[in-house]
Amino acid sequence: MLPDSFAAELALVHASVPDALPGAAFCALADGLLALLFPQRAERPLSTADAVAADLYHFRAELVELLALVPALPASATALADEFTAQLPALRAALLRDASAILASDPAAQGLGEIVSSYPGFYATALYRIAHALHQRGLPRLPRLLSEYAHQRTGIDIHPGAQIGSSFCIDHGTGLVIGETAIIGADVQIYQGVTLGALSVTKGLQGTKRHPTIEDHVVIYAGATILGGSTVVGAHSIIGGNVWLTESVPSHSRVYHRAHIQISRSVDPAAELVFSI
């Protein structure tokens, strides 16, 4: 049996915590928003403009209701919801550019419908752009909860404070990490296992630029690690797989890791090896 004092200790901890955030409901609302913006993600697409307008109205109303539960808002729940709802046309346009970038770079992609409905890179980018919009407005905790929800579902970890330009392409994406102060330009393509991280993780660096800057039209291949707030990857550069980079490179650079691979076998005196593929 646990001692009564332990229960009393936990009771004090519970009493000292602010009201719980509506994290699960907010994540569900974000999924519903994506289904509204992209009917390929919806179980039942809407058939009329009136139906779409009604869903937009209900989305705004639910957003106001959930934001009202968040303590220490920088503005009223109604004002924040109105600002975010007014941004929906721009959000959809940005996500269409992201999906088009994936389609243009991935030979396996069969069309925009497949990308918006099933590609984890698009989904993680979509939730990032929603979370980033809320982060910019100073909402506490909710943007991070939303980015972690995307992380759990896709294996892609993008801090909502990162700045990511247009036509962003994540190919595969599992294990991708993009830190809080990373800056990514337009038309950037990143593969799985890439880390845009900090050289040091000491708490004293909070509030400083700790993560790299990636300029426009850069490709970063799988497993590359790029660290440091002063590290800049110049435009039109290619960073090869498994590269470890902690210093800046100029535009149009090609950075790669040269592995030494040796293949040998003992000779079979009885017969030659025959391969059937």
TrEMBL record:
Q: Which domain of life does the UniProt lineage start with?
A: Bacteria
SUPFAM superfamilies (UniProt xref): Trimeric LpxA-like enzymes (SSF51161)
CDD domains in alphabetical order: LbH_SAT (cd03354)
GO BP annotations listed: amino acid biosynthetic process
Q: Keywords for this entry?
A: Acyltransferase, Amino-acid biosynthesis, Transferase
The molecular function terms of the Gene Ontology recorded here are:
acyltransferase activity
UniProt keyword Amino-acid biosynthesis present: yes
Q: Does the keyword Transferase apply?
A: yes
Q: Which InterPro entries match?
A: LbH_SAT, Ser_AcTrfase_N_sf, Trimer_LpxA-like_sf
PANTHER family linked: SERINE ACETYLTRANSFERASE
What is this protein called in UniProt? Serine acetyltransferase
Q: What is the lineage of its organism?
A: Bacteria, Pseudomonadati, Bacteroidota, Cytophagia, Cytophagales
